[in-house]
Design brief:
mainly alpha
């Protein structure tokens, strides 16, 4: 499988980013306890970075187990579409619950206008890939995972540094 090196590199990026996020949370300098919004932000980062790790390795495992490149992208896309659906529903319910309880995220419009539509579009793209069996479409789904994690990390970092000043 010619894409193996790329996928293994993405898996390394995902696990490194998850580990880096973990270190940032451990060494957080704040006397205040964690807010529900901060916990939700870290959960979102870990969902996406660990998802990137797992879904980057999945096609490699399928290739060595099954051997057919056509089946690799079909099976991997089914799994990734399911993951996007679960992430979408979980985070939508969490946003509704937090907002209802008065805990408003730093950028609720960004979540509603970018994160949720992007997640839905990435899931739909993976469903299409069940019929097209293309590495490119699958890799776009993986890119969406890292994009969400990076944006959430940036928003969390900016919010945390602006609150300390």
């Amino acid at each position: 499988m010619k894409e193996e090196g790329f996928l293994l590199t993405l898996a390394q990026v995902g696990i490194a980013f998850a580990g880096f996020s973990g270190l940032i949370t451990v060494f957080r300098k704040s006397e205040k306890p964690w807010t529900l919004i901060e916990i939700a932000a870290v959960k979102l980062i870990l969902q996406h970075t660990l998802g990137l790790f797992c879904f980057s390795l999945l096609p490699v495992f399928i290739f060595y187990w099954h051997g057919s490149e056509k089946q690799i992208w079909r099976i991997s896309s089914i799994a990734l579409a399911g993951f996007f659906w679960v992430v979408f529903v979980y985070n939508w319910q969490q946003l509704r619950r937090l907002t209802k309880d008065g805990h408003v995220p730093a950028h609720p419009k960004m979540l509603k206008r970018i994160f949720f539509p992007k997640t839905a579009a990435a899931g739909i793209l993976q469903i299409f890939n069940i019929f097209f069996d293309q590495f490119l479409l699958y890799s776009i789904g993986l890119a969406c995972l890292i994009f969400s994690a990076v944006i959430q990390f940036w928003v969390s970092t900016m919010r945390h540094t602006s609150n300390e000043q």
